[in-house]
Amino acid sequence: MYLEVFADNPFATNCWLLALEGGDEALVVDPGFEAGRVRRLLQSAGKHPVAAVATHGHYDHVGAAAQLCGSELPFFIHKDDELALTDPQSWGSGFATPVGAPSDVRTFSDGDVLELAGFSLEVLHTPGHTPGSSCFRSEDILFSGDLVFRGAIGRYDFPNSSAEAMRASLRRFLALPDHLDVHPGHGDTTTVGLERSSNPFLINLA
């Protein structure tokens, strides 16, 4: 599998690019800020984007969605975060920048399976950080967005965050198999097992 990440932006937000080994179709997870760089990286790898998906609607994760997708590529986001693309004022300091919506916005719900670029992404709705925050699982990998980071968890103090929903979502994360590789919205890759055993925010939660 081809998997590329870059995070050199003001929020150090990870933008993930993935494609099947030998395939030319790529999927963008959390398009972040730099549509041009996404296209350049994929072009240098002999691949082209066919869709973008967002773990949630905060500006640092969807800022380049409209520019990247335009009128050509579908953009997927949970139905409870769709409004953030055009009316972000309730999303808290630093996230109130309008980003605009791509022409082809498609929403998903918990349990949906997105078939994109040869991958089957299972949607796990994990609200708390935002109402529509979601993780994507494909076989042995999980894109966790801002739910869980290596040694930390996402914030839940924004105007539309929920501490109660966050706790429930973290417990759902802990129910996943230890071997899953976790690719978060910020920071380094980890595993469910490592976070279960060492993340101070999770140790006493199960």
Keywords:
single chain; alpha/beta; 5 helices; 206 residues; Metallo-beta-lactamase, Chain A
Kindly summarize this structure in a few lines:
This protein has 206 residues and is α/β, with parallel strands linked by helices.
Q: If you had to describe this structure to a student in words, what would you say it looks like?
A:
By secondary structure, the protein is an alpha/beta fold. The protein has one domain (about 1-200): 4-Layer Sandwich (Metallo-beta-lactamase, Chain A). It is built from 5 helices and 14 strands. The chain has helices at about 35-45, 60, 65-70, 165-175, 190-200; strands at about 1-5, 15-20, 25-30, 50-55, 75-80, 105-110, 115, 120-125, 135-140, 140-145, 150, 150-155, 180-185, 190. Strands 1-2-3-4-5-6 form a 6-stranded mixed sheet. A 6-stranded mixed sheet has the order 7-8-9-10-13-14. It has a two-stranded antiparallel sheet with strand order 11-12. The protein is globular.
Label the overall shape: globular
Main beta sheet, described? 6 strands, mixed
Q: Assign a percent range to the helix content.
A: 10-25%
Secondary-structure-based class equals alpha/beta
CATH homologous superfamily placement: Ribonuclease Z/Hydroxyacylglutathione hydrolase-like
What is the overall pLDDT average?
92
User: What's the arrangement of strands in the largest beta sheet?
Assistant: 1-2-3-4-5-6
Show the helix and strand layout.
Elements: E1 2-6, E2 15-19, E3 25-29, H1 35-44, E4 48-53, H2 59-62, H3 65-69, E5 75-78, E6 105-108, E7 113-116, E8 119-125, E9 134-138, E10 141-145, E11 148-149, E12 152-153, H4 163-174, E13 181-184, E14 190-191, H5 192-198
Parallel strand pairs: 3-4, 4-5, 5-6, 10-13
Antiparallel strand pairs: 1-2, 2-3, 7-8, 8-9, 9-10, 11-12, 13-14
